Task: inverse folding
């Protein structure tokens, strides 16, 4: 005998089925809402360990500020940042595949090491996804190895050497080079050597140091023996910190001119006021007359969230993420061709004292840079630099400073 | 050129003593407990960070108290996480120490931040001494002297005291020592604490030379493993010879082929292991055969 409920001739199975159907009907609007709120995923490839781990952390923080600026949403969907490690060309390439194929990100940002970025550029090109290279400096990234899908925020070595050379050459003609033995360091040596030799200077020594070198004492013995006027180091992260600390140990601090193709404040903060010195090109500084209203707002937001001022890497990744999100917002799309088209045409105003833009023929961000000198007396925990000048001095010379299309040799394959 | 080579060899020997100091704690823990301690670099890093925290309030005392603190952390980790793994599959110990290394590095990042911290040598140790072609900084000379004293003290402790004899006997035949009524658990805990404290000393002494960042353990762990492997796992004398050999090899490679200066220590390790798989002074231990 069939059991009925409440004498209405409805059995339990029918009631449960009806309840389930009703529940689905009631829930449908929420299902639709959930689908509409599917996140916009953006991949981040920055180091979590190794010599550039600090840059990775600060870069991640900068990107987060950009997301906060958009209140965490774009196209009415939440923004999701997926951060994977950038540790070596091979493993970074694997993580790039993971971001594109498993995480289905709409674009990837990051890259401190030029070697890693050169390894992932072909992956972005094959997948036809936007790669916003926030931190590499090897000239060829927007030069002979350029890609239609790669945009570069950071400065090419070719530009930075021209920015600092006039100040450094006043110190003498004898140059010693110690550079990291990979794409960035070797390119830095080639670019600066060309300028030095053309101007009648001498290279009195050139050493490559493996990335992640902790002890430079044997290198410094060679430097000391060669008695150079200028020491130009293609070193970054903890390598530069170690070099500065050991220069102090051996009594070379302020005894020679010191520079590098680019510098991160964190490397000098870690060396400390007694060991930090030199003249460096900088993409940005958190103090100085060059700061715009937008830049000041970024400094304040960063300080509020992380209890310390942002340094160059923070600005780079903040701007990189801002440019991706602006492209998505303005094109109302996550389609790569639309994003690429927007970035090739858009002028970003308010980030520096002149509008900055990605060139459509090499995707290099054209922007003024700073020539900064470490203060003689450092009294603040974070404020290490005096800004000596901007490069180029004349905004009209900006595009020319980055070279013409013929000079840089970039041709997009597709 | 000859002068520069002599200078590099001496610099390599001084650097070698720093490698010995980093490696010796690893060697003690392996030699006595049979644990390949992947977390060794973390105790090195903790030494530097503890000294960083204590130096403002305690001044020079922080040099002594920081390693002591590291030793206490080592003892707590041994009692809670390592002890249950004794006598079990060696792979478990590897996984556990690897996990501890990752966890403590993140902990350092959370407590002290990702950004590096300045750490200078005391003013009375600044400057350098020049003897003919040889230049040695006062600080490195200080590290060398201290390392020799620590090695001497450890050797005397292990070979000249009753406790040392118990430790050495326990490392060879733990069952027999237990049957004699000695509480080996406590002995093992003390050895682990000693090994980690020595790593802490290395961290304190390396802090004025190298970057004090959460990932600084990486700069210690690889040379330490290479030195211990070349010297022979668990061999005290082997670690000393090997550390000096690695230091001189690195210094000379920087003179002639700098780009290969990291690879040279691994090449040396491969070469020695091919000729003598137990390392330079490694012995056959029944317990590990």
Result:
């Amino acid at each position: 005998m069939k059991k009925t409920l409440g004498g209405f001739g409805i059995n339990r199975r029918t009631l449960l089925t009806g309840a389930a159907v009703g529940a689905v009907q009631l829930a449908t609007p929420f299902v639709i809402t959930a689908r509409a709120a599917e996140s916009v995923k953006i991949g981040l490839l920055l180091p979590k360990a190794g010599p550039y781990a600090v840059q990775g952390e600060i870069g991640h923080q900068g990107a987060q500020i950009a997301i906060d600026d958009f209140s965490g949403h774009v196209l009415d969907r939440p923004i999701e940042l997926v951060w994977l490690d950038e540790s070596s060309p091979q493993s970074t390439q694997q993580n790039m595949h993971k971001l594109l194929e498993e995480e289905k990100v709409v674009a990837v940002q990051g890259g401190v090491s030029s070697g890693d970025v050169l390894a992932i550029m072909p992956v972005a090109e094959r997948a036809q996804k936007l790669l916003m290279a926030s931190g590499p400096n090897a000239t060829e990234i927007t030069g002979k190895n350029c890609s239609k899908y790669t945009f570069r925020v950071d400065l090419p070595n070719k530009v930075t050497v021209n920015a600092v050379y006039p100040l450094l050459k006043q110190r003498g003609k004898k140059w010693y080079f110690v550079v990291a033995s990979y794409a960035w360091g070797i390119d830095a040596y080639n670019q600066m050597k060309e300028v030095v030799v053309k101007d009648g200077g001498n290279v009195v020594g050139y050493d490559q140091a493996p990335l992640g070198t902790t002890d430079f004492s044997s290198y410094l013995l060679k430097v000391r023996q060669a008695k150079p006027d200028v020491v130009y180091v293609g070193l970054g992260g903890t390598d530069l910190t170690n070099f500065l600390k050991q220069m102090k140990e051996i009594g070379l601090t302020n005894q020679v001119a010191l520079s590098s193709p680019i510098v991160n404040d964190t490397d000098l903060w870690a060396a400390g006021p007694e060991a930090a010195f030199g003249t460096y090109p900088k993409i940005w500084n958190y103090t100085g007359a060059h700061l715009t209203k937008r830049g000041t707002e970024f400094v304040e937001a960063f300080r509020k969230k992380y209890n310390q001022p942002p340094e160059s890497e923070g600005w780079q990744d903040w701007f990189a993420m801002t440019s991706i999100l602006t492209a998505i917002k303005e094109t109302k799309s996550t389609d790569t061709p639309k994003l690429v088209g927007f970035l090739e045409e858009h002028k970003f105003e308010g980030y520096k004292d002149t509008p900055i833009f990605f060139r459509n023929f090499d995707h290099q961000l054209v922007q003024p840079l700073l020539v900064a000198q470490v203060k003689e007396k450092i009294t603040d925990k974070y404020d290490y630099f005096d800004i000596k000048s901007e490069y180029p001095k004349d905004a009209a010379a900006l595009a020319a400073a980055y070279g013409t299309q013929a000079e840089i040799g970039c041709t997009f394959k597709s | 050129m000859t002068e520069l080579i002599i200078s590099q060899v001496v610099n390599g020997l001084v650097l070698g003593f720093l490698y010995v100091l980093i490696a010796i704690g690893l060697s003690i823990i392996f030699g006595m407990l049979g644990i390949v301690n992947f977390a060794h670099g973390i105790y090195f890093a903790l030494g530097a960070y503890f000294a960083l925290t204590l130096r403002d309030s305690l001044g020079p005392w922080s040099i002594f108290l920081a390693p002591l603190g590291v030793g206490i952390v080592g003892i707590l980790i041994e009692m809670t996480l390592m002890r249950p793994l004794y006598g079990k599959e060696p792979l478990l110990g590897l996984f556990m120490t690897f996990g501890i290394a990752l966890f403590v590095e993140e902990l350092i990042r959370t407590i002290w931040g990702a950004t590096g911290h300045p750490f200078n040598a005391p003013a009375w140790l600044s400057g350098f001494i020049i003897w003919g072609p040889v230049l040695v900084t006062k600080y490195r000379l200080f590290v060398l002297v201290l390392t020799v004293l620590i090695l001497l003290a450890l050797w005397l402790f292990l070979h000249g005291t009753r406790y040392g004899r118990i430790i050495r006997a326990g490392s060879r035949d733990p069952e027999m020592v237990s049957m004699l009524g000695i509480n080996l658990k406590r002995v093992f805990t003390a050895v682990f604490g000693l090994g980690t404290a020595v790593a802490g000393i290395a961290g304190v002494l390396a802090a004025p030379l190298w970057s004090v960042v959460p990932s600084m353990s990486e700069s210690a762990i690889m040379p330490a493993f290479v030195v211990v492997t070349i010297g022979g796992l668990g061999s005290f004398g082997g670690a000393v010879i090997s550390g000096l050999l690695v230091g001189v090899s690195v210094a000379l490679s920087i003179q002639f082929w700098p780009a290969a200066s990291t690879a040279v220590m691994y090449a040396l390790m491969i070469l020695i292991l091919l000729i003598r798989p137990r390392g330079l002074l490694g012995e056959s231990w029944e317990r590990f055969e």
Observations:
- The interface with chain B takes residues 49-50, 53-54, 57-58, 181, 207-210, 212-215, 217-219, 221-222, 224-225, 238, 241-242, 245-246, 248-251, 266-267, 269-275, 308 of chain A (CB under 8 Å).
